[in-house]
Amino acid sequence: MNVLLFSRYGSLGASSRVRYLQYLPYFRDQGVTVEVAPLFSDAYLQALYNSGSRWREVLAGYMRRFGALGRARRFDVLIVEKELYPFLPAVVERLLRAMGVPYVADYDDALFHRYDRHPRALVRRLLGRKIDAVMRHAAVVVAGNEYLAARARKAGADRVEVIPTVVDTERYRLLPGPANEVPVVGWIGTPRTSRYLQALLPVFEALQREVPVRFAAVGAREADFAGTPVEAWPWSVETEVSSIQKFDIGIMPLQDSPWERGKCGYKLIQYMACGVPVVASPVGVNREIVTQGENGLLAETAEEWQKALQELLQRGEAGRRTMGAVGRERVEHWYSLEAQAPRFLAAVKGAVR
């Protein structure tokens, strides 16, 4: 079987890397050939994270995609990450359906809210139901959680599969060794998502006055946290696992809004795979991933966050390792590449009529 993957990004983009690219060796071992055609280049992402101009990269990406679409009928099935052309109507997706070219549409966030909750009325009117059309014309919709799956069903999708975002447990491992002299509460993400930490800065300051503790944000900009307790650690594909292995507690604060309810809890899965206990906001899929008091704690208000972090710090290394082991077992069972790769391949094969 030959597959053309219309990913959003290359390996630098987390969503494309973890939702598709990490599956490619498994697909290859099963005799499936996958050609990758990313929309945006690494240069686009670098400009995005550094607040630079992106228009040239956007135009180049749209032209590359146009060329790749010209070869679509040579493949047995297409995989489309979210949509083919952002901020354009779902014309091409409709044409693919009319031409009998099957595609799998995959979602790991509530992209539909980018349009149906856009601040501009014109965007809401023209594109508010766009993603519903993409879902409806897909042979299969793969959703990272039930919130996204419910939208696909409501849109009239023929077939919907819920497949969580996963990690490779051969890469994400528990790191036995001596504990940190001062416990590290860690977070991982991008400069754009580090805003979720801002509301917790008073909590971090209060905890540092009470107990020895460090706070690290992998992938955040140092300038965004100057003068705060948060240490900005650099991110790279090569060092992300080793950075998480230095955490004693992993955190995932979120606002409770429709966009956040569509997130897939990937940070939590990364932490748990490394045997790190977690504290998370009780938003969306976080409620499913975290079993209160077993692999982590849920916290909503600032007071709850302070209490939850205090509790895990007071448990000591042994208590945290016990909780982390439960999280690791949960990842191996459901949130691992090994567990989900056969299901993802089956969904792709099921799109071929």
Automatic annotation (TrEMBL):
Pfam families: Glyco_trans_1_4, Glyco_trans_4_4. InterPro entries: Glyco_trans_4-like_N (IPR028098). Residues 27-164 form the Glycosyltransferase subfamily 4-like N-terminal domain. This is Glycosyltransferase subfamily 4-like N-terminal domain-containing protein. It comes from wastewater metagenome.
